[in-house]
Amino acid sequence: MAKYAEYITQIEIESLWSGKKHVVWNLDRHVNILSGINGEGKSTILNKVVKSLSQGGEFPSHLLKGVHLKVEPEDAKWIRYDLMRSFDMPVLDADTIAQIDSRISSAIDFQLYNLQRKYLDYQVNIGNRLISILQSGEPDAAKRAQEISQRKTRFQDMLDDLFKETGKRVIRTENEIRFTQIGETLMPYQLSSGEKQMLAILLTVLVEDNEPTVLFMDEPEVSLHIEWQKQLIDLIMELNPNVQIILTTHSPAVIMNGWMDSVTEVSEILVNEER
After folding, report:
1. Rounded distance, CA 11 to CA 214, Å?
2. In this structure, what DSSP letter does residue 225 have?
């Protein structure tokens, strides 16, 4: 059975920028925020780490040359991870995507399409788990079942609260995510760019199903209202307390809710190649 890491303890990258610099970044269990001026290498560092992982999260056999990860536990060979980028760009292969769903017009639409599929699987898994618990006859079965159900309900409550200014609410009787607004039913593709971005982030975290997962985010604040930026990390941590966040940002708002100590400047993790 594959042994998964709970989190990354250190990222080391050799020979960054033509061999002049070397990255050594010791990470917190939960929240890690990389900051710095444009061109200093925030996204480069994030991209190198993500590219070093196979699609299934296997390492170190798939690591790029010069990228080394230390994890907890140390003998784990796999990492569960998700990647979120700041985007709402046109899809590259529009003709192929149109055959899947004609309403998909951007990269984030396509991600939401895939997340809807994961959301359906998540609900099936939750349903099976609830049946198993309730049939167990254990004294605390009802309490455990309620705890499992609460995460999905809390996710829906979060969206209702975030979207309340525009009168949108989650339709809770649907298997897929849909919204109602003044009597009209809306699909995720009909949301604003900021609403899509927040939905994609929170839905990604929900379907992690409370598993230890590394969530990489490259400037997630793009398109988000400043109040949403301030809430972002707290909402993610509430939906999955076992997540490890590794993000890049230019926004002071992202760290306003007590995350200042989680910020690392790029200059702080760069050392000369000659060590």
Report:
1. 13
2. -
At 200-241, the pLDDT tens digits run: 999 999 999 999 999 999 999 988 999 999 999 999 999 999
Question: Could you give the CA distance from residue 191 to residue 235 in angstroms, rounded to a whole number?
Answer: 20
Residue from 151, 158, 190, 156 nearest 175 by CA: 156
Task: Using alpha carbons, select from 137, 136, 117, 272 the residue that is nearest to residue 204.
Answer: 117
Q: By the 8 A CB rule, do 271 and 21 touch?
A: yes
Describe the chain by its helix, strand, coil percentages, rounded to 5.
45, 25, 35
What does the DSSP 8-state code read for residue 88? -
pLDDT in tens, 101-132: 656 767 888 889 999 999 999 999 999 999 99
Residue 136: left (phi > 0), alpha (psi -120 to 50), or beta? alpha
The tokens for 99 are: 């055959």
Cα 122 to Cα 207: distance, rounded to the nearest angstrom:
6
Classify strands 7-15 and 67-72 as parallel, antiparallel or unpaired: antiparallel
Which one-letter amino acid corresponds to residue 166?
Answer: T
The strands making up 168-170's β-sheet, listed across from edge to edge, are: 168-170, 179-181, 184-186
Between helix 107-135 and helix 141-162 the angle, nearest 10°, is 160
d(CA 56, CA 198): 24
Q: Name the least confident of 10-24, 72-86, 140-154, 243-257.
A: 10-24
Residue whose token pair is 């004294």: 139
Ordered structural domains, the chain, with CATH: 1-80+211-275 (3.40.50.300), 93-210 (no CATH)
Token pair recorded at residue 109: 């639409």
Query: At which residue do the structure tokens 């990258």 appear?
Result: 13
